[in-house]
Design brief:
- The protein is of the alpha+beta class.
- It has one domain (7-171): 60s Ribosomal Protein L30, Chain: A, CATH 3.30.1330.
- 19% of the residues lie in helices and 30% in strands.
- The chain is built from three helices and nine strands; from the N terminus they run E-E-E-E-E-H-E-H-H-E-E-E.
- A hairpin with a 4-residue loop joins strand 4 (33-39) and strand 5 (44-50).
- The mean pLDDT is 85.
């Protein structure tokens, strides 16, 4: 690591970053999911910020592949091949998939913050589907998840230090309906 302030990169939804050096990647998540990959031997890593689990049949064909979990994993695979590494070399962390509007949930089970992939398989929530697909794609790609902060209610601010693999998370509130005339 070099002295001085790191290079800050803001990662909007639908984007991926992969590299090394004194770089700090930041993003803000709601129902979206971010995955960080970090190789301790090379101090090389990356983060994606995807919006939806898969490109559906009605999706625009000109939308960048980084918006969809299944396509972003292909982008990560390209980066790993280019670096001459494989999934087993990376520490993987998964974040996001929060429910931003809990008052709109009709199923009481969805209000439970401790969901599992079996519940997520039948849940219509975009956040739940994003988490479930992340788990499936990472497992099928040979990755092991070292840490995750997923589900629940509200947003997350994320900071990923590429040089160390450290990730900081700040949880924010869920959106709430404010009645007219309320303070």
């Amino acid at each position: 690591m070099t002295g001085g302030a790191p290079d800050d990169i803001y990662l909007p939804s639908g984007q991926i970053y992969f590299g090394q050096g004194h770089v700090r990647v930041k993003t803000l998540l709601g129902t979206c999911v971010a995955i960080t990959l970090w190789n301790p031997a090379t101090q090389r890593g990356g983060m994606c910020h995807y919006l939806l689990p898969t490109r559906g049949p009605r999706s625009k064909t000109d939308t960048a592949p980084g918006f969809y979990a299944d396509e972003v994993m292909g982008l990560f695979a390209d980066e790993l091949r280019a670096a001459g590494t494989s999934a087993k070399h990376y520490v993987v962390k998964v974040f996001g998939g929060g429910n931003m509007f809990p008052q709109q949930l009709t199923n009481a089970d969805c209000r439970n913050e401790s969901c599992d992939d079996a519940r997520r398989a039948v849940c219509p929530s975009v956040g739940c589907q994003n988490i479930r697909v992340a788990h499936e794609l990472l497992r099928s790609g040979g990755f092991s998840i070292a840490l995750e902060d997923v589900g629940g209610h509200g947003s997350r601010q994320l900071i990923f230090d590429v040089w160390s693999g450290d990730v900081w998370v700040r949880q924010g509130p869920a959106m709430a309906v404010i009645e007219r005339g309320s303070p």
